[in-house]
Amino acid sequence: MSDAMPVTRALFDEVMVPNYNPAAIIPVRGEGSRVWDQDNREYIDFAGGIAVSCLGHCHPAMVNALTEQANKLWHLSNVLTNEPALRLAKKLTDATFAERVYYANSGAEANEAALKLARRYALDTYGEQKQEIIAFHKGFHGRTFFTVTVGGQAAYSDGFGPKPGGVQHVEFNNLESLAAVMSDKTCAVMIEPLQGEGGVVPGTKEFLKGVRELCDKHNAVLIFDEVQSGFGRTGTLYAYEQTGITPDILTTAKALGGGFPIGAMLTTAEIAAHLKPGTHGSTYGGNPLGCAVAEAVMAVVNTKEVLDGVKEREQWFRAALEKINEKYDVFAEIRGQGLLLGAALNDKYKGKAREFLVAGAEAGVMVLVAGMDVIRFTPSLVIPETDIAQGMARFEEAVAKVVAANS
């Protein structure tokens, strides 16, 4: 097949494994918060590649960093280290509770590393009996077999044979549910401070504080999965900063590279010491290209201007959605934090989130779902106010269409 031959959606069904069912449109170009398809039709992007494109598409800082690094050095094995990886690690540790960084390529890999580290730390420190992991119903931690088992959605983990053992699930935002199963056999509790895939549900401060206290009581490691909530998404570099507590291990990916694949696990020196040479690794983890791009992203995102701007944009989104709801009465609530927002559908429209997503695309705006009952918004952290206004006008068209179809 030559480069000149047409590439259509039909080709997907011919050549790709059918685990995805992508939309009919194929985007070919993006700039800022706008994307154009093969027919040069424009879309306003409120999805951000699922909370990834934190600076929008083709941000100059990212393009320059990638281009500059591409002309220097692409890849090294982990027998060697490299300058971008070390610089980024220093910046991440300076900006957080963490003292050590492990690089991976994705959120799932960062979470896999976190879970393996928690188990190894507990084994070395307390013995073999301390190996139980507790996570939460409707949580999501990735698609490796270990992380998908820890994630609290059986639909993603069933049907692949025997699952990794020693994993329990309890109710999110219910401290009694957690306290009832925690013991000195618990090695780790893994939690999203704000559940993303599970419906954009924030953990309450009281609940998260209680989780921290239970972990301390039982000598369990607290792992914060900030793959979706992290890197400026909630208006601080990481969401834990707004909770009043500190995790022992934090995972980060998605927005970390602004669209370039990179993930990281952050932790303390004491805990990190248990991943000795040979215990874990990644061929591409700490890749100079990814680290150089993430450095550039961090230089923009981790500024007062951008982080304060996230909180300001949250209010613009909430106001626009509330105005739409006054007119059409489709949402039960608007929830979330910063630019990780969920419009939860009311009883009349329950189960119809995808209809809003499809109608949105037809109207020229990209949104997401979080389950069947929540429309999710994870746009660029620097999306201009004019794009929000125009995108919301298009989204209102979509809402009107869905309402008409269901009346």
Structure description:
The protein has 407 residues and is an alpha/beta fold. The protein folds into 2 domains: 9-59 and 304-405, Alpha-Beta Complex (Aspartate Aminotransferase, domain 1), CATH 3.90.1150; 73-301, Type I PLP-dependent aspartate aminotransferase-like (Major domain) (Aspartate Aminotransferase, domain 2, 3-Layer(aba) Sandwich). The chain contains 14 helices and 17 strands. The protein has helices spanning 9-15, 48-51, 60-70, 83-95, 107-126, 145-150, 154-157, 175-179, 205-217, 269-272, 288-301, 304-328, 353-363, 385-405; strands at residues 27-31, 34-37, 42-45, 100-104, 132-136, 167-170, 186-191, 194-195, 201-202, 221-225, 249-252, 263-267, 331-337, 340-345, 365-366, 368-369, 374-377. The strands form 4 sheets. It has a 7-stranded mixed β-sheet with strand order 4-12-11-10-7-5-6, with helices on both faces. Helix 3 (60-70) packs antiparallel against helix 11 (288-301), helix 4 packs parallel to helix 11 and helix 12 (304-328) runs parallel beside helix 14. It is globular and about 60 Å long. The mean pLDDT is 96.
